[in-house]
Design brief:
This protein is of the alpha+beta class. It has 2 helices and 8 strands; from the N terminus they run ααββββββββ. The chain has 2 domains: about 30 residues; about 100 residues.
């Protein structure tokens, strides 16, 4: 191989590695971006919108409101729970506020733990943690809604 050809091939290899690295960094989402979308379990569905709106459907009824997510998740080694998601909704004409600690268990799993405002709540009154799955177009209602043409 000539010297010129070696330099060209080395340049192409290095450029390819840099391009792949940039593409992977560009694809990674922040925790706040990961939260956006529909999540469900056997007990409930919840949708986090980009405009901080939330739609939460559970056996207790449909709740609409707003959420605030700090984007920070705790280190698993720490014992104490830290709320990082605050939800303020109206359900059955009643305003309700909740705080949760959430952590991502991959791209399509979300662990949600209710943290009571009153720390004295224990036992059966304190909700257990729950794992939610990310919904896609094939779950929770299927394909996008079709609108009739005029």
């Amino acid at each position: 191989m000539t010297k010129r050809r070696k330099i060209t091939s080395s340049f192409l290899i290095i450029s390819g590695i840099c391009l792949i690295s940039l593409m992977q960094q560009g694809c990674s989402k922040s925790p706040s971006e990961k939260l956006i979308g529909r999540w469900y379990s056997g007990e409930m569905t919840i949708r986090f919108r980009e405009d901080s709106g939330v739609i939460w459907n559970s056996p207790r009824g449909l709740a609409l409101g707003r959420y605030e997510f700090s984007g920070k998740t705790r280190n698993i080694k720490r014992e104490e729970e830290q709320p990082n998601l605050f939800i303020d909704v109206v359900r059955n004409d009643e305003r309700q506020q909740f705080q949760f600690e959430i952590s991502f268990l991959g791209e399509d799993r979300l662990r949600v733990q209710l943290i009571p405002f009153n720390k004295e709540v224990t036992g059966s009154d304190a909700a257990r943690g729950m794992v939610l799955r990310r919904a896609n177009d094939n779950t929770l209602g299927g394909a996008p809604i079709k609108v009739a043409k005029r």
